[in-house]
Design a protein that fits this description.
By secondary structure, this protein is α/β, with parallel strands linked by helices. Helix content is 35%, strand content 22%. It contains 28 helices and 39 strands. An eight-stranded mixed beta sheet has the order 1-2-3-4-5-6-8-7, sandwiched between helices. Strand 21, helix 13 and strand 22 form a beta-alpha-beta unit. The N terminus is likely disordered.
Length: 944
């Protein structure tokens, strides 16, 4: 640890774990005086060419003076960072603050020279790019705004690191050296580069876990039974295509096989690389296992062992230590307390989980934080090959357990690019980083459907999960996820229903639904369900119970050919008697008719037609594969494929080519899934043109910034007074009606003369504020006599003026009262909210939300998305409100909060929206130092 005479304490908050380009991890931390030996060892492993590029001359070894210079930093003007793996340096970066003449300097000089050195064995892994992000963030924190770097022209790799970073830069060539100068302020391009690198790295890290070339199960018992032995059997019986090993330190000397699998007493004894280790030993033995895995070069761990954060504070400390230890060796972890992972690709066939059977290959990616829910989801997907059609299977499955490291965000990064996954289903009990999840969800949803059900909605997250604090209600978080394109459902039944439809049917072009079938009653139920979901159904067409397969085919073909139809729901009940339609014949009729119109989705609502469901599912059933019953049955050699690849590939090709129709046992379930698909399709269309954040010429951003800086100089956080609030909002073109205090009747009369009649008299005491229903407001007071009488009435009803806190305000034109709020949440970010004033938003929760910054199209949708929106558009003959003025107000508030993150809360209540224009009658603003935004800083894994 750094000691005197250093000018600053060791900056522990600069320490971070990062994911590199190849999916491995490294630790970034400040270099201290204790690192002399590590630095020398690191330098000895660097090639002569790399040393030449760093020092512009042959430099075989570091002198004692060099070592002192490169390990002694003041953490202000001289800073060095190292990337480490296994505790050893793999790369270093340092900056030295310089003045205008290029010599060493101190603040206020805001430029620094920066230089890198990366060990040759680790070049190409993105280490330098990650270090540049971190040293840049450190420099900005220390008041440095610009970096300069001198690079030899032949050092093209380092030049590329700088030029690809996305910063605004200058380039010159002098005396045989390329000089690069670039500003450190993040730009849209630098953030885009950072996000793209984060995506590639995290996706690759998950891909290494889900498609390993070799797996070791550590803790496989010597006798059948137990967690480790069960996982070993499941991997073996799934026909894993790679090399599989069993590890048990209690194996008798000389035993070389366990359950038909090569066995060893330690992972160190395995001759060859191990990509993935499944750890199933008691928690107290896991650290020893992690050390062995790290030293053997294992790339990732699936820890099924329990006894961690889910068990209490001591377990949480064990979990933190586990993550730190694994990251030290560059390994990522699924778990602990994980159910496991599954990859059905014929190239992998991995079932490293506690599920004894594997779903057939399919197009659904499945993520569950809970093992129990994971079992339930897999089971339901299996059963949909029976009573309800199973239209597809699973591509990959991840159960993250306590998600101490790999989370839903990481898996989303993988599924976004995975060609084997068309639909993503997620069961989440907590969202550790809502801001990042929303960003990733928006990108994923633009390419493939993302369906989410969230557990623990009304209580604390499970003990095993590290979750950021949020002040937002669950309904608000759900609304923000929908804005990001997430299909939010409430149950795992709805999760599967929606997933099966989205996996194998096209998205509907609109909400118009044709209904046909052989049951008039079932058709009417479907019609009512469509209306309840906001769809536009055509009157049901009853084919009667005598309908044949040909009748169904003809009716469905006509419906699909109708330009006024966007989707078709077919209802079917059992028929009896001679000539009744058979299950297989009906399924073939529906499939052939739908194949002729592949752009429109078709769903089936059936009643007790198990045979029809199975026929519709046909060869692409998700029924589980049969596993071997004998745990000790011989396992094929690692080079063999079981079952044969051609057999598996044939099944996959049949699955790909078939037009598979989902079937549901109830009209409500089918229509709800269809309604979700319609809403998602509309979101996709809207996302293609998200609108823009408008510019307003009258906004005074610099004036507002100066005012905010002056106000914050008074303290860390404060609620502004009336004049200050009006002044700040005025810089953004938001004019607030003045309200003058009226502590006495005479003061009220004087205020009214100043403002001009007619006026309103309001009590602003906390228990009466914005509560017109309690009688604390008197409106349209035309003269002084009316004002004084009203003042006396309020005093008689509610007490002395000092309790009432009365104010006088000039009357505004009549209209619809609404509320506009903005808040910066530490987890989700800046959120804009809108609703009608009074009971609609307070009692019924009829409030809509959008993430800031809000575009013009989002402001338009925000106004129309509340249930009581018709009141703004001339409901029952009333005059329509000026919604364009309201949308402009929303956009101006959004700009204020986005431009000035110190504005942590804004409330405009009430805002009266008249037929022409609007009036802001009340406003409050709170300022505070802006919360840290990790999405603008360097890439890091969550700290643990």
């Amino acid at each position: 640890m750094q000691t005197s005479p250093d000018r600053h304490e060791y900056p522990a908050h600069w320490e971070a774990d990062v994911v590199l380009r190849d999916g491995g991890t490294a630790r970034v931390r400040p270099i201290t005086v204790d690192d002399a030996d590590r630095l020398v060892s690191f330098y000895e492993q660097v090639s002569d060419e790399s040393k030449y590029y760093r020092f512009f001359a042959p430099y075989p070894r570091l002198s004692a003076k060099d070592v002192h210079r490169f390990t002694h930093h003041d953490f202000v003007d001289r800073v060095g960072l190292a990337a480490t793996v296994g505790g050893e340096f793999i790369a270093t970066v340092r900056y030295d603050r310089i003045g205008a003449d290029g010599t060493p300097a101190s603040a206020p000089a805001d430029e620094a020279e920066v230089a890198f050195l990366v060990q040759d064995a680790h070049q190409g892994r993105g280490v330098a790019s990650a270090l540049l992000e971190h040293i840049g963030a450190v420099a900005r924190e220390r008041g440095i705004r610009r970096f300069a770097a001198e690079v030899l022209p032949a050092n093209t790799k380092m030049i590329k690191v700088f030029t690809d970073a996305g910063y605004t830069q200058k380039r010159s060539f002098e005396d045989g050296v390329v000089r690069l100068e670039f500003d450190l302020e993040p730009t849209d391009r630098s953030l885009a580069v950072q996000y793209a690198r984060e995506h590639r790295a995290e996706a690759r890290s998950v891909q290494r876990l889900l498609a390993p070339g070799s797996v070791a199960v550590i803790g496989a018992g010597r006798t059948p039974g137990g967690v480790g032995r069960s996982v070993l059997r499941n991997i073996r019986d799934a026909g894993y295509s790679g090399r599989l090993y069993a590890v048990n330190k209690a194996l008798p000397q000389g035993q070389q096989e366990l359950g038909g699998v090569p066995a060893h007493r330690s992972v160190r004894d395995i001759d060859g690389p191990v990509d993935l280790a499944v750890v199933a030993v008691p928690a107290e033995h896991v650290p020893e296992v992690v050390t062995e895995c790290g030293e053997h070069g294992v790339q990732g761990l699936v820890v099924v062992s329990a006894g961690y954060a889910e068990s209490g504070p001591e377990g949480r400390e064990l979990q933190r230590a586990l993550v730190r230890q694994a990251r030290t060796y560059g390994m990522r972890i699924i778990g602990p307390n994980a159910f496991g992972i599954i990859n059905t690709s014929p190239r992998v066939r991995l079932n490293a989980s506690l599920a004894p059977e594997v779903p057939r290959p399919g197009r659904i990616g499945l993520f569950a934080q809970s093992g129990a829910i994971g079992i339930a989801l897999l089971s339901r997907l299996h059963r949909r090959g029976g009573g309800v059609t199973g239209v597809t299977g699973v591509s990959t499955f991840v159960s993250s357990g306590n998600r101490a490291d790999v989370s839903g965000n990481d898996v989303l990064q993988y599924w976004y690019e995975d060609p084997d996954t068309d639909v993503v289903l997620m069961y989440l009990e907590s969202i550790g980083n809502p801001r990042k999840f929303a960003r990733l969800a928006r990108r994923t949803a633009a390419a493939k459907p993302l369906v989410v059900v969230q557990g623990a909605r009304h209580g604390a997250a499970p003990q095993g999960h590290a979750v950021r604090a949020t002040r937002l209600a669950h309904a608000t978080v759900s609304a923000l996820l929908r804005q990001a394109g997430v299909i939010r459902v409430d149950t795992i039944t709805e999760l599967v229903d929606a997933g099966l439809l989205l996996a194998r049917q096209p998205l509907p072009a609109g909400p118009r639904v044709a209904i046909l079938g052989n049951s008039e009653s079932l058709g009417l139920l479907t019609y009512d369900a469509c209306l309840a979901e906001g769809l536009r159904p055509h009157p049901p067409r009853d084919l009667t119970t005598a309908a044949s397969a040909a009748d169904f085919h003809a009716a469905l073909s006509r419906a699909l050919a109708d330009d006024r139809c966007d989707a078709v729901v077919v209802t079917a009940i059992p028929s009896v008697g001679e000539g009744s339609v058979g299950d297989a014949a009906l399924a073939e009729a529906l499939r052939s008719a739908s194949a002729a119109a592949p752009a429109k989705p078709v769903l089936v609502v059936h009643v007790e037609l198990g045979g029809l469901a199975e026929a519709l599912s046909a060869a692409a059933s998700t029924a589980p594969q049969t596993a071997a019953d004998n745990d000790d049955a011989p396992r094929p050699a690692p080079t063999e494929r079981r079952p044969p690849a051609a057999e598996v590939q044939g099944t996959t090709e049949a699955l790909e080519g078939a037009r598979l129709i989902p079937a549901y046992p109830a009209a409500e379930r089918a229509v709800r899934a269809l309604g979700q698909a319609v809403a998602y399709a509309q979101w996709r269309r809207d996302a293609a043109d998200p609108g823009k954040v408008p510019e307003y010429e009258d906004i005074d951003e610099k004036g507002a910034a100066a005012l905010i800086d002056g106000l914050l100089a008074r303290g860390q956080g404060l609620t502004l007074g009336t004049d200050e609030t009006c002044d700040l909002l005025g810089h953004y073109g938001v004019q607030v009606h003045r309200a003058l205090p009226a502590p006495t009747p005479d003061a009220a009369a004087e205020a009214a003369r100043t403002l001009g009649y007619p006026v309103a008299l309001k009590a602003t005491a906390p228990h009466l504020r914005h509560r017109a229903d309690l009688g604390g407001v008197r409106l349209d007071l035309a003269d002084e006599d009316q004002l004084r009488r009203s003042y006396a009435e309020l005093a008689e009803l509610f007490g002395a003026p000092e309790e009432l806190r009365p104010v006088v305000q000039r009357m505004a034109p009549r209209g619809v009262d609404v509320v506009v709020r903005a808040v910066i949440d530490p987890a989700a970010g800046a959120v804009l909210s809108f609703g009608l004033a009074g009971a609609a938003s307070q009692l019924l929760g009829d409030t809509a939300h959008r993430l800031i910054p809000v575009t013009d199209r989002e402001a338009t949708s925000l106004v129309r998305s509340i249930r009581t929106a018709p009141l703004l558009f001339g409901w029952r003959g009333s005059a329509p409100a000026d919604t364009r003025a309201l949308e402009e107000l929303l956009l101006r508030v959004s700009r204020l909060v986005d431009d000035h993150p110190e504005v942590v809360a804004v409330t405009l209540e009430p805002v009266v929206v008249a037929s022409h224009g609007l009036s802001v009658l009340g406003a409050s603003v709170r300022l505070a130092p802006p919360p840290a935004r990790d999405d603008l800083g360097p890439r890091t894994l969550p700290a643990y």
